[in-house]
Specification:
Largest sheet of chain A: none
Strand order of the largest sheet of chain B: 2-5-8-1-9
Number of helices of chain B: 13
Number of strands of chain A: 0
Helix content of chain A: over 70%
Protein name (chain B): ATPase
CATH architecture of the largest domain in chain B: 3-Layer(aba) Sandwich
Shape of chain A: elongated
Number of helices of chain A: 12
Strand content of chain A: under 5%
Radius of gyration of chain B: 21 Å
Family (chain B): Belongs to the MoxR family.
Structural class of chain B: alpha/beta
InterPro entries (chain B): ATPase_AAA-3, CbbQ/NirQ/NorQ/GpvN, ChlI/MoxR_AAA_lid, P-loop_NTPase
CATH superfamily of the largest domain in chain B: P-loop containing nucleotide triphosphate hydrolases
Number of domains of chain B: 2
Largest sheet of chain B: 5 strands, parallel
Oligomer: heterodimer
GO molecular function (chain B): ATP binding; ATP hydrolysis activity
Keywords (chain B): ATP-binding, Nucleotide-binding
Shape of chain B: globular
Number of domains of chain A: 2
Order of helices and strands of chain A: HHHHHHHHHHHH
Structural class of chain A: mainly alpha
């Protein structure tokens, strides 16, 4: 039941996230192009408002690229055993790919930013040649400035591009902020959920009937120990009960897990403590993989261990319930 | 060489003695307990060990320490490009006094043979040694001469050099029971090693002999009393089969790989004082037992994916036996002969 709530929508959010990321990238590129005046020399020639801040943009792109690369690397590390060959092949290209793209963008932005600054628009010589009045020396300057002013107003269209651009950029900035906020919120909630699913936080127990499941599992183990005439099958059944109760606590046995692997993960999650679980695991391995005659002493050891484990699990469940109970409702 | 007759050892007794031997060796080879344990598994399982690592990591010291503490007759061959097969196995020579051809045994007639830098000699000489390893006997001039028991080869292989080396072919690598990598010591342990050297007057720690060839054979025999559950046999077969079906592996592990896995798992059980194998034993020895037996597809070389990575992935993907035994094999543990 815990699993059902952990990944409710496996496919659609990933598609949505990809579309949003593509849209975001297109927006950022558009903004950068407009802001840096990529259209210089075309009909829309003029200086973009962010021309002076090109360094800031470069930093932004570099940081975003780095963050993406780190995230991709983390995702790869989470794949068990490197994933399938195809996954491994794609994974090996992701980080270099992102790095190359980020580097190319940074270099492109730097080129755009620096080239424009080196070649300021040249004033037409006609403005200087115009003053020829013999009367005064103060005349040429106003003519030159008026000439430059004419050129600015003449080259641009009647629409005020400067104001339009600023408005557009402001809108983009707001959209980006909202996008980042939404992503951050989703990432945080997904992370919290996955941590709970893995059982890596603090017991990882839920207050939604887990105690009953735990009690059932421990009871089943106890009954197996009491009823079964053969200590071997009784101990195996008892260990199976512990395994079930761990699964209810969020640590289920993976297909390639050995009893030691399972025990280690359960101990890391704080589900089991002390020597009881180790004792039960040792007894199980002996019962499962040997042909030794097992006696009542081993059965008693298993019983003691199971009681201890059951008590610890119940205590952990109660603590986790007290701590996470309120937050659980908001997650749903 | 004094082979004393030793009583049969139980797996628990063999395990205690093996640990005592390792403790003594660890006085000389510091901080390499995992590598030492793997070599010990190889010795107990009756196989030969390939140590692959960079120079100066203590490979020779390790081999010599084993021979000293186990009380084995030790020989060393430094493999060079001009070494001939007869330099390894021995050759007949003319005795002037008797006027007959007399066989002069080569260094291979020892309990523990250190084959240093085995990849420096041409395949002809390598083959002479590897044949002796597989058959535990040498045939010269139509006469077959058995090698002493136990016969253990610890071969070292330098993985970084390509000039003037002859890489061991896959078929010959298969004859090594396991491959061990030693690796560098952690910094603090390396410092401790240097300090220990400064505190000591001699170049090397003097080790005492704790065993003898007869006892080593008895320890090996103890492995036969370790049982392997049917489900674990199936698990081992599944691991071997997974290497043959893996998309990145061109040639999977041989049946000899399966036998190696069984014997090494049994040896690990002995070291733990158990007379039954558990899945942890198989999982722990899968990498050293199988990684050198598989051939990866050529394109993986470019991507720097090693056989170790692929085998580790295989071990993480093959299901271990179920918690509750299957109905038809509930009473199935039986010893597996190798």
């Amino acid at each position: 039941m815990a699993r059902g709530r952990v990944d409710p929508r496996p496919a659609s959010p990933r598609l949505g996230a990809r579309l949003a990321a593509a849209l975001g990238a297109a927006l950022v590129l558009g903004m950068a192009a407009v802001a840096l005046n990529a259209a210089q020399g075309t009909a829309l020639a003029g200086y973009g408002p962010a021309k002076a801040q090109w360094l800031l943009l470069v930093f932004g792109v570099a940081i975003a690229g780095w963050a993406l690369a780190v995230r991709a690397r983390r995702t790869q590390e989470r794949l068990p055993g490197g994933g399938t060959p195809t996954q491994a092949r794609i994974a090996s290209l992701v980080v270099p790919g992102i790095a190359v793209m980020a580097a190319a963008t940074v270099v492109g932005l730097a080129v755009l930013g620096t080239r424009g600054l080196q070649t300021p628009p040249i004033q037409p010589p006609t403005g200087i040649a115009a003053p020829s009045a013999p009367g005064g020396n103060a005349q040429p300057t106003p003519i030159v400035t008026s000439g430059a002013g004419d050129k600015q107003s003449g080259s641009s269209s009647p629409i005020d591009f400067q104001a339009l651009l600023e408005g557009f950029l402001a809108l983009l900035a707001v959209a980006l902020l909202v996008l980042v906020a939404v992503f951050l919120a989703r990432w945080l909630s997904a992370r919290r959920r996955s941590e709970r699913a893995d059982g890596t936080v603090d017991g990882g127990l839920r207050g939604d009937g887990t105690e009953e499941a735990l009690a059932d599992a421990v009871l089943a183990g106890r009954e197996a120990l009491a009823d079964d005439p053969d200590p071997r099958t009784a101990i195996i059944a008892c260990y199976a009960a512990m395994e079930r109760s761990l699964a209810h606590g969020g640590i289920s046995r993976r297909k390639a897990d050995t009893p030691t692997d399972l025990l280690r993960r359960a101990a890391e999650a704080g589900l089991v403590q002390g020597a009881a679980a180790q004792t039960l695991t040792d007894l199980f391995r002996e019962a499962r993989y040997s042909t030794h005659p097992l006696g009542e002493a081993q059965r008693d050891q298993a019983r003691t261990a199971l009681e201890s484990i059951g008590a610890h699990l119940a205590r952990a469940a109660a603590e986790a319930d007290a701590r996470f109970g309120a937050r659980e409702e908001t997650v749903i | 060489m004094t082979a004393t007759v030793t009583d049969q050892l139980t797996p628990q007794q063999a395990g205690v003695r093996a640990h005592a031997v390792l403790d003594e060796i660890e006085r000389a080879v510091v901080g390499k307990r995992p590598a030492l344990e793997l070599v010990m598994l190889g010795v107990l399982a009756g196989g030969h060990v390939l140590i692959e690592d960079l120079p100066g990591l203590g490979k020779t010291l390790l081999a010599r320490s084993f021979s000293t503490v186990l009380g084995l007759d030790f020989r060393r061959i430094q493999f060079t490009p001009d070494l001939l097969p007869s330099d390894v196995t021995g050759a007949p020579f003319y005795d002037q006094r008797t006027g007959e051809m007399v066989f002069r045994p080569g260094p291979v007639f020892a309990n523990l043979l250190l084959a240093d830098e085995i990849n420096r000699t041409p395949p002809k000489t390598q083959a002479a040694l590897l044949e002796a390893m597989a058959e535990a006997q040498v045939s010269i001039d139509g006469v077959t001469r058995p090698l002493p028991k136990p016969f253990v080869v610890i071969a070292t292989n330098n993985p970084i050099e390509y000039e003037g080396t002859y890489q061991l072919p896959e078929a010959q690598l298969d004859r090594f029971l396991l491959r061990v990598r030693m690796g560098y010591l952690p910094v603090f342990e390396e410092a401790a090693m240097l300090r220990r050297r400064l505190d000591r007057d001699t170049a090397e720690a003097e080790l005492s002999t704790l065993s003898n060839p007869g006892e080593v054979v008895a320890m090996r025999d103890a492995l036969e009393r370790v049982e392997v559950n049917d489900d674990l046999v199936d698990y081992i077969i599944a691991l071997i089969d997974a290497t043959r079906r893996h998309a990145q592996i061109q040639v999977g592990a041989s049946p000899r790989g399966g036998l190696a896995l069984v014997q090494l798992a049994r040896a690990r059980a002995v070291m733990a004082g158990r007379d039954y194998v558990i899945p942890e034993d198989v999982k722990a020895v899968a990498l050293p037992a199988l990684a050198h037996r598989v051939t990866l597809k050529p394109e993986l070389w470019v991507r720097r994916i090693s056989a170790d990575d692929v085998i580790a992935g295989v071990v993480q993907s093959v299901p271990t036996p179920q918690t509750t035994p299957q109905q038809n094999s509930a009473t199935g543990p039986n010893p597996v002969g190798a």
